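Researcher:
Attend to token order:
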Amino acid sequence: MSSEGDLDVQKLREEIAEQRRVVSTLDYVDLNTFAFRSKAGRTKIDLLASLAAKEERLELLLEHQRTAKIIREFEELHLPKTDNCPICLDEINVANSTNVFPCCGGLICFDCRKQQHDVDAEAMKSTTLPESLLTKCPLCRADFGTEYDANIPKWIKQHAKKGKPWAQSALGDFCKLGTHGMPVNHQKSFRWYTLAAEQKFPQAMCAVSRIYRSGGIGGGIVEQSDEKFFTLAKEAADLGNADAQGDVAAYYFGKNNITQSILYMTLAASQGDVGQMTKLGYFYFLGEYGMKKSMILSKHYLGQSASKGDVDAYYFLARSLFNLTKHAYEGRVSLPGHSCIPKVLYWARKAELEGQDMDDAAELVSTLERQTWSQCEYCIKSASSVSQPLKACSKCKAVRYCSKECQVQHWKEGHKIDCKTKL
């Protein structure tokens, strides 16, 4: 029996095939000329935009099915360690949860924690909300007063001495980083992590595995051991820890076990691991390592990681956006209302200034600026044929105009849609 997702896939494929047939029957319109402004041109552009949207929906649906299958089969083999949120009673995967109140050690789900933060933010603006929503722990009702942060190390030490692994792991973090009034002490950090790892606390297992991978911290607390690293990292990954899943993916990749690498990479990315989303996006961009070439999925993953500040994603996101638009509109990348130029230049400029691939990004920026700044974006007059220098759009700085009239007309024609950086 076909699932609902399979039926959606089949329906989209049929719609895409029909739309491609319709496009193929249209009279020829060269979108690289002013003919794009004709009625026939606008009709063709609308059909191409609709086709591109359906192709994107199809690829994202297929990717969702791929990811869901991996997660389902993984969880059948490795049952996640769960607890119940005391507020909404939903199950919590404790492998990645950091939503612990240090006062009572209570664990709540991400949604309830977010709701609490949202209420706190709103309470700061309003005096009509109950004071308890801002000033009390939702579980034990401890005051969120000025003494709360000062008491965090004391509370966590108490929980750690009682054997609570989340608190032992937290003390490992404090000693490693020298935070919450504790001096940097790598030996104590390793001991606290180890105590938590012995109780199969995934975050601590991941931390200890990384110490073994690097050969120790603070002057060699332990001897470097790839075997101990992988054993602990794999166990933490199979308990659902995203950081460990990323480490295991990298380990398998180094061993040329691409199938297992992609599996753990996908698991980590599904939990929001930025680095693994960037790698998946890069693989889809290249069409290598068993992944088909897809600018749609490259944009999907790189867009998420770039928006979260991963500089490694910037350049290839710019390239993905450019290639995707070029494919969708028969080689034209600057059609008003469908232009990728502002977004491409935004991410390429960020890559040039902040990211990796700086030289490649600088070349892309130079090429696009040379093309787009050499003529008025609306009337296509060359910069050399007008008496005044072309003026750039003050917002996106991606296009230029010979006059205010051309800028206004281009804005109405579609630049108001294109003049943004959000994906």
